[in-house]
């Protein structure tokens, strides 16, 4: 029943539900206490409503947002509590007392202060939101960006301002109970005085030198930096917050480019979710601002996702546009007809080229280049299970997706069967369960199945820990845990230093990465990963969630994997290790392999997972593995050759396309220069058109 109430109210926990109930029921109780009248009961219930309201705000409760939609927002709730206090004073026969009129005057004045306070907070935030936000771009030497206001002034400012009424409410209650008007007046003066002080403290940040420059000055400074830096290759990305991983996966590749890289983002929320990088980053939310930006030195633009806002850069003809995607699999997203708009589409291997040919969506074969997958460099190739170690099998199902297709994930129909067979295997294996972070976000059944699988793994881990056949070096594990704590503390310290920024404008000013710190953090993450795997026995089953350890780290400590159709399978193939894929939709082995290239060298599992023994046999005896050669051939087909290295192939493709772009631009200049009587300025209008016509502006808004 409680779980149903939590789901209906859309709160995060039983504690949140209880706080919501106390707050909602508290106001009728306040009215009852005022009518009786009982000041002690009123005071007790008022404390409960204050605390419950504060708790829900701190938790960011969905219910708080809903209350504001039905005209029961924060300020209304405070006002009702104050009016009920006035009612209490009247019912206590204090209506003829001056303190009664003092209370009324106090709350009227206090609410009069809400308007300038809210206006100032809105104005300050608006003026400090610049037209662009950057990282690793030196704007500090070009324009003056003042420090952000103290966090205490703007963070949850409305809640802080309204809570200043506590002084008046508390003192008026004491005054009513003790009969001392002086206490009541003190509270009234404190509330109004502190409210005035809060407004006065905000004033300096709304004017003068504490306000960042206007949009034109900031954009001119960005263009000045671009003219000096002269970027050659751009990674362009637009998307929702939960898609940040799609751009994060390309950061290391951008850092390794031979050309000068730049990352252009379109949403501020993506910038805040961007992983640390040394590459310059410019976030440009406005389409007109982007089109007016001087990108005349850029020759290659890379796109990680097919989204509508890509049109704002695709319209620039002086650079070549390439779709690189954010994973390589047999899903329909990998052959999106939108890909026709790009000059080239880059795939990891021959499989991607054939996929477009079979789909027949209009992408020409000559516009496809095979460049490998630079991100797969950290994946280690398999040398067999080291002697004396229990084999490790990774279960990494994908999520349920948006369309309800039972073939999307194995977690619902096969997850429990897979894990039960793995934990009961003889000879034994270790199970690592790493679910997709979106699991259960769409389907309740998937979420429930995930919980059951988690419970199975944890129960098996507890049983193995008490089994005398499994022993570990506890002293070494304790040393690893101590090392892990030390590394974590240092990483937290470094991340805290890197993240010490007041707001977006201040982060833009100071957001130039410290290369030494960046390199130290990269080294420490490697050490953290090593210490993590040594901090528990090598036979212990584990449920692994969160960002660390990363999926590729799990690949490297595993000897085999069970998964679903997704880019996870394509990436794991780089290791050369045995793997199994679940045919959750029941297509049958031949049809499943026909439809999904990445499973051609896999052990195909039905939902019963009866075929799992074949995978375990391949792990225990690699010499007798019937699919070993097929995996090698499939790896070359999907991911390209091992040599030259993928990053070298990628850099070569960038260089070749840049030459094509340059040749096109030279040809255009020679042709336009030969046209007699051409109006001055049109030749150089692109790509940085300083003035957008009305039609162009409409086009931007429409995209």
What's the short story on this structure?
The protein has 703 residues and is of the alpha/beta class. Helices cover 51% and strands 8% of the residues.
Write the layout of secondary structure elements.
Blueprint: H1 2-9, H2 14-35, H3 39-58, H4 62-69, H5 74-91, H6 98-128, E1 133-135, H7 151-154, H8 157-162, H9 165-178, H10 181-202, H11 215-229, E2 233-237, H12 245-248, H13 251-255, E3 261-265, H14 268-272, E4 281-283, H15 287-291, E5 300-303, H16 311-314, E6 320-323, E7 344-347, H17 350-359, E8 368-370, E9 392-396, H18 415-423, E10 430-433, H19 444-465, H20 474-498, H21 504-510, H22 515-534, E11 542-543, H23 551-557, E12 560-563, H24 567-572, E13 579-582, H25 589-595, E14 603-605, H26 612-620, H27 628-639, H28 646-673, H29 694-702
Parallel strand pairs: 2-3, 2-5, 3-4, 5-6, 6-7, 7-8, 9-10, 9-12, 10-11, 12-13, 13-14
Antiparallel strand pairs: 1-4
Helix pairs in contact: 2-3, 2-5, 3-5, 5-6, 5-9, 6-9, 6-10, 9-10, 18-19, 20-22
Report on the structure:
This protein is α/β, with parallel strands linked by helices. It contains 29 helices and 14 strands. Helix 5 (74-91) runs antiparallel to helix 6 and helix 6 packs antiparallel against helix 9 (165-178). It is globular, with a radius of gyration of 31 Å. The model is unreliable at 4-9 and 680-703 (pLDDT under 50).
